Structure formats: C-alpha cells, structure tokens
C-alpha cells in the first residue's frame, strides 16, 4: 500500500462511498480503481475479439437446407399460451 494525498470532489466521493457500501473512503477509492481497471480490460478484450471487418455474407442462404433434429421431448412439448393483458380499472374521477 502507498500513502498519498489527492484532491477529490467531496460530493462525488460521498456518493460513491454511500453507494458502494464500503466502510472507509480508502476502501471506496480502491474499489473504484478496481472497477475502472476491470471495465477497461473488458473493453480492450471486446475490441480484440472484434474480427477482421464487415461481413458481407447471406445468412439466409447459409441456413437454407439445414434441418435441426430436436429430441421428441422438445418437439412434442406443449406451447404455453400467452395470457392476455388485463385491462386496468380506472378509479372514480
């Protein structure tokens, strides 16, 4: 651990402290730094998985002629009916 002095926005620190549930301001700041690092790492990973560019294929053409063999339990399963939304009663005016 390193001890350092920083100038912080008091309202921002107080809100972060309240919302984080941490017991101390130091714990709140450490948690915020960990979250920042996690988010940036995830964003970098997503960018790396982005692929090589725009895909110009035809998905419908790729799927044409494909058949799926579902197990009998799934194929013969009853489909539940979606209930109709109930009308709301209005109160007296």
Nutshell version of this structure?
The protein has 93 residues and is mainly α.
Approximate shape: flat
Order of helices and strands: HHHH
How much helical structure, as a percent, in the residues?
Answer: 40-55%
Question: Oligomeric form of this entry?
Answer: single chain
Poorly predicted sequence stretches spanning 5 or more consecutive residues: none
Note the gap between the termini: 65 Å
Structural class: mainly alpha
Count of individual helical segments: 4
Radius of gyration using CA atoms only: 27 Å
Task: Please report which band the strand proportion falls in: under 5%, 5-15%, 15-25%, 25-35%, 35-45% or over 45%.
Answer: under 5%
The number of distinct β-strands equals: 0
pLDDT average, as an integer? 85
Main sheet summary: none
């Amino acid at each position: 651990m390193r001890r350092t002095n920083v100038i912080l926005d008091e309202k921002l620190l107080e809100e972060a402290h309240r919302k984080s549930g941490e017991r101390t301001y130091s714990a709140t700041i450490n948690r915020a730094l960990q979250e920042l690092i996690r988010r940036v790492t995830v964003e970098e990973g997503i960018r790396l998985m982005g692929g090589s560019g725009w895909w110009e294929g035809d998905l419908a053409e790729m799927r044409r002629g494909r058949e799926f063999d579902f197990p009998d339990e799934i194929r013969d399963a009853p489909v539940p009916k979606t209930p109709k939304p109930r009308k709301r009663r209005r109160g007296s005016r």
